[in-house]
From TrEMBL:
HVO-0513-like N-terminal domain boundaries: 16-154
Keyword presence, Transcription regulation: yes
Superkingdom classification of source: Archaea
GO molecular function, one term: DNA binding
InterPro entries per the UniProt record, alphabetical: HTH_bacterioopsin, HVO_0513_N, WH-like_DNA-bd_sf
Listed name of the protein: DNA-binding protein
PANTHER family: DIMETHYL SULFOXIDE REDUCTASE TRANSCRIPTIONAL ACTIVATOR
Ranges for domain HTH bat-type: 165-216
One of the Pfam families matching this protein, by short name: HTH_10
Record keywords: DNA-binding, Transcription, Transcription regulation
Length: 226
């Protein structure tokens, strides 16, 4: 079984209003679509993990939810000062209808989460037969900007590397990546990461070391099993 990671950048008119919200502000960095349920024809139910400067951006995000006409109801569950979950039930029209088609009208498997970024992009992974994967990419609408970031044999162990991190470790790595801490040359310092997280430099450094050590350990474990 093969998999590919697709990055699709939607033009503004094709984005969901909440995805457009991510583009138009700077407090909320991204939203991960973790789970979905399409069993009822009239609406779609989704669970998103929203990440960013929650103290500054949470109320703005909820206000944006309130004005989306297709959203019937939502419920928010706080996680920490960097993220929260939002359960959404939305009528199956417009973008929600297209999302249902994307995730169900295919023999391929969509591997959650689906990441919505602040540049208007959607990042997700798909697993299945090579021919079907090629057909999916070839048949995407021409007005979309599409890139294949990864392609190879599907490996569930690779997926476990991220889930093996604690939520806080994953969050710190996300912030470090966004700030350019892992760029060459490095664009941000541990102090920059700490300031973004609202914690001390030593705390940020400790989280980074533990997360990096865990990922290295998982890589070594995988190498010894080959």
């Amino acid at each position: 079984m093969r998999y590919l990671q697709l990055q699709i950048r939607f033009p503004p008119e094709a984005r969901h209003p909440m995805h457009q919200f991510l583009v138009e502000q700077d407090s909320i960095q991204r939203a991960y679509l973790r789970h979905w349920n399409f069993s009822t024809p009239e609406y779609v139910t989704t669970l998103l993990h929203v990440v960013g400067n929650i103290e500054k951006g949470r109320e703005e995000y909820l206000a944006a939810l309130d004005v989306v006409e297709t959203i019937q109801e939502y419920d928010v569950t706080p996680v920490d000062d960097r993220s929260f979950y939002v359960y959404i039930r939305e009528s199956a029209h417009g973008f929600a209808s297209r999302l249902r088609a994307l995730l169900t009208d295919t023999e391929l498997l969509i591997v959650p989460p689906i990441e919505y970024g602040s540049d208007g992009e959607m990042l997700f992974e798909i697993a299945g037969e090579q021919e079907a994967l090629q057909g999916l990419v070839a048949n995407l609408p021409e007005h979309l900007s599409v890139s294949v970031n990864r392609l190879g044999e599907y490996d569930a162990y690779r997926e476990s590397q991220v889930t093996a991190l604690t939520g806080r470790q994953e969050e710190v790595l996300d912030v470090a990546r966004d700030l350019g801490y892992y760029e060459i040359p490095r664009q941000a310092s541990v102090r920059d990461v700490a300031d973004e997280l609202g914690c001390s430099k030593s705390t940020a450094a400790d989280h980074l070391r533990k997360a990096e050590a865990r990922l290295v350990s998982l890589y070594e474990d995988r190498s010894t099993t080959k």
